[in-house]
Every structure is written in C-alpha cells, then in structure tokens.
Recover the amino acids of this structure.
C-alpha cells in the first residue's frame, strides 16, 4: 500500500475544486493542433491540462469518499482515492511560469480561434509509420503487428471519415461555482500561437515540466481498473452479494467513463508535446488521434493480439481463425487505441466461448485437435454509423443472463478469476484473459464516449453476435454533456 496520506487541508482544497464544473473539450479542438504545433500552442494546452485535470480528479475523489453501503472503506477503493488525490496535489504544485505581459496575453487570453491547420479537413490519405505509435493502456499492448495469412481475409470496398467529439462529464451544477473562478485561459484546450517567433525558455521548460508530470500521473493510474476491481470484488464477497446492485453499477459507469476522459486529455497532452520535443511529427496523427484511421488495419492488430492471448491462456498451438470482411480503404477520424481496446475485449470473449463450447461438444479430444468454426467480422459503412459485427459459434448466452453481461464483475467464463489472479493483475497491469467481468461494460463505455454503442444478440446453443456502432454524424465542435 502507498505511504502517501491525504491531509485535511488537501481534502478541503479538493472538495472546493469539486464544486467547479468541468470544461468540455471537442475533438475538433484536439485535432486543430495539427502535426506541428508551435511551442506557444503547446503551452496553452499544457496550461489548460494543469488547471482542468484537478477539477476532474477532485470530482472522483469526492465520489470515492461517498460511496454507498460502506464501499468507500475498502482498502483498495481508498488506495484508488489516494492516487487521485496525490495526482491532484502534484498538479496544484506546478508553479506558474514567469512570462511578460505580452506573452501571457498572447498565450492565455481567452478568445475565439477559428485557426485551421493545412490539411485538417483534407480527404487525402497518407501512409504512416505504424511502428512509431504504440498503444499501451489498461493492460492492452499493441506494437508491431504480425499478419495472418491473407487467405483468411476477404475484402470489399468504400471509405468514410466522419467527425466525432469528446465526452465530458459535466455533472456539477454551474451555480455551485461561487467560491472562485477558473484561472485565465481555461475556456478552450486549443488556442493558436504563431510559429514564426522566438519563444522564451520559460515556455518550453513549462511544456517539458508538464509532460513529465503527466507521464508520472498516467503511470500511477495504470492499475486503477485492477485495483478498483479488487476492491469491489472484496466488498461483494464480504457482503455475500451475488450481483452488484444498481447504485454501484452506476458509480462504476460514471467512474470508468470519467477515467476514459481523463486519460484522453492526459494522453493527448503528453503525445503532442513528445511528438514536438522528439521531432516525431506525423501527418496522419495529431497526438493520439489518427485523422485517417484505417479500420481494417486496426481490426487486424486486435485479431493478432486476441489470438495470441488466447493461445497463451489455453496453451494451444492453434485457436479459432478469424475471417474479416472489410473495405481496404475504409478510414475515418478516431483514436486507434480505443478501437483496439473494444475489439480486443469482444474478440477475447468470442475466442474463449468458441473453445469452451466446442470442447464440450468434443469430450476427450485434445484442444489442438478440435476443428473450430471461424469467427467472422463484417464491417459495413452506413449513413449514420460504421458498424462492426463480430459473430461466433460459441454456444451463446442464456436469455436470462443477457442483461447481466452489462453489469460489472458478472462473467460467463467457466473459470472465475481468483484473488491471486487479481493480485497479479494489480502488480503487472496485464488484463486477465477472462473472468474479471469488466471487459464488455467497459468496452461499451469506450464506444459511447464518441456517441457510438455496443450491442449483443445471443442465440443460446449456437452463438453470439456483437455489434459495435461507431458514430459518423456527431459534431466535432460540440462537447458531449
């Protein structure tokens, strides 16, 4: 357990900030940075993050301290609360940079900015170095992809690139904001600053300082899903609850959705700064957002990762194959890491269910000798959505259990996760292959973050179809309330 302890003075400050409403950040604001933002533009983003993140963190600390039915007293829940409070304290300790009035006014003055970088709305697709962008979050790690044989993939045509927008959790009434106002420059995440001037050293030093602090904070919170899971599981077992009640599920939905938003803001701020500092600019990426996200490429990455995890878990040489039917040129603006996460979780479920179901149908036969039906992934482009359908023949789910799959810590896996597995998950941040009961509801939150959705239809005795809807019509200029 952490030796850090929250003081009464810090708690008072946190509760004071928890009265402030959050500031929404649209996807358009995030992509307006372009691949080569100026130090001044990065400064404004860093400054925004330093002053906005404590507000978001304070909301979570307050909620973690006021959970119903004694859940707040669980040691793992208190540890997560301390991580959020400690991160709040570190951000509040960042010293304001000393700038001349001229630079301060230029970098932080609130103003409407319709700046558009060249190519922002371009339909031109560019090749990009996929190896330079590694997704690593919540235990899912995607690096260089290893392709399956092309024979296992069928192709169709067409492309698309919708606008999307970011989710923001404004669940605090703005009338509560009477004690103090937000600092200067907090109305927008993006504000254009010229590239053709020499910025003082204080600007670049501040950008590096904020980047280093955010990297440290992001790493601290890597184990949040595991630790929160352990706390709720312990509380659930202690109170002999078979399923979680509605208030706890609602809390977990709010908490995990907020965590996605916090990590989106942290990850974007870190990456745009690192890409600039290390001269890693890429015309297809603005931070962690890919402007022309190729769905087929990302699905293949998720297939490789899920099949490898399945092979490792079941200790077999060959797991069910996956057939992909997708346009080769279907692209749109999205965060590849989010899409990988959703696909990885749903594919894991399909692979596991297929192996377990067909091992029952073939008793006494070694898993490597069973001929499994393939899992099929079909991608279609509509006027409103890009839809990804994942179909398996894994035996399906009983109709009475379908509502339960969207509750946390319910799992249809035959082997439930053990306390030792949760401890290993906490130590390594590696997601257990099955039995945690977070994957589907968490993935649905990722889909809904950009106004999409995740739905499931089951045929008990045969298999399951999962539909991942990615919204194509949402406004990129309006934050989700």
């Amino acid at each position: 357990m952490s030796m850090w302890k929250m003081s009464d003075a810090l708690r008072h400050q946190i509760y004071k900030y928890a009265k402030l409403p959050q500031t929404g950040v649209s996807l358009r604001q995030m992509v307006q940075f372009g691949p080569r933002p100026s130090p001044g533009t990065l400064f404004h983003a860093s400054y925004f993050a330093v002053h906005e993140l404590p507000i978001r963190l304070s909301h979570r600390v307050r909620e973690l301290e006021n959970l119903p039915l004694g859940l707040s007293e669980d040691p793992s829940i208190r540890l997560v609360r301390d991580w959020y409070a400690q991160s709040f304290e570190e951000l509040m300790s960042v010293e304001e940079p000393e700038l001349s009035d001229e630079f301060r006014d230029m970098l932080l003055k609130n103003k409407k900015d319709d700046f558009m970088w060249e190519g922002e709305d371009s339909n031109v697709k560019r090749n990009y170095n996929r190896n330079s962008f590694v997704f690593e979050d919540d235990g899912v790690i995607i690096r260089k992809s290893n392709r399956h044989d092309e024979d296992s993939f069928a192709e169709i045509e067409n492309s698309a690139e919708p606008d999307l927008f970011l989710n923001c959790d404004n669940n605090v009434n703005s009338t509560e904001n009477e004690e103090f106002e937000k600092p200067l420059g907090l109305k927008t995440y993006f504000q254009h600053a010229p590239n053709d001037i020499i910025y003082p050293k204080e600007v670049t030093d501040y950008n590096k300082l904020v980047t280093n602090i955010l990297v440290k904070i992001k790493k601290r919170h890597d184990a949040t899903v595991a630790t929160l899971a352990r706390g709720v599981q312990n509380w659930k077992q202690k109170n002999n609850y078979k399923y979680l009640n509605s208030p706890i599920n609602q809390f977990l939905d709010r908490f995990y959705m907020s965590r996605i938003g916090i990590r989106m803001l942290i990850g974007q701020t870190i990456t745009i700064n690192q890409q600039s500092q290390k001269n890693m600019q890429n015309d297809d990426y603005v931070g962690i957002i890919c402007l022309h996200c190729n769905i087929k490429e990302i699905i293949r990455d998720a297939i490789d990762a899920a099949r490898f995890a399945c092979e490792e878990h079941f200790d077999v040489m060959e797991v069910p194959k996956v057939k992909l039917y997708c346009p080769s040129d279907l692209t749109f603006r999205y965060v590849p890491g989010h899409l990988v996460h959703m696909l990885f979780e749903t594919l894991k479920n399909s692979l596991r269910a297929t192996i377990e179901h067909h091992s029952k149908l073939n008793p006494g036969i070694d898993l490597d000798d069973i001929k499994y039906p393939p899992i099929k992934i079909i991608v279609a482009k509509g006027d409103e959505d890009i839809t990804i359908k994942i179909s398996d023949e894994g035996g399906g789910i009983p109709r009475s259990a379908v509502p339960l799959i969207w509750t946390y810590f319910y799992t249809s896996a035959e082997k439930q996760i053990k306390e030792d597995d949760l401890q290993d998950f906490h130590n390594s941040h590696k997601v257990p292959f099955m039995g945690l009961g977070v994957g589907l509801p968490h993935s649905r939150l990722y889909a809904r973050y950009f106004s999409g959705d995740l739905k499931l239809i089951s045929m008990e005795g045969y298999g399951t179809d999962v539909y991942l809807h990615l919204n194509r019509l949402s406004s990129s200029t309006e934050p989700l309330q």
Remarks:
- The longest helix spans residues 246-277.
- The first strand starts at residue 135 and ends at 137.
- Residues 122-133, 144-178 have pLDDT under 50 and may be disordered.
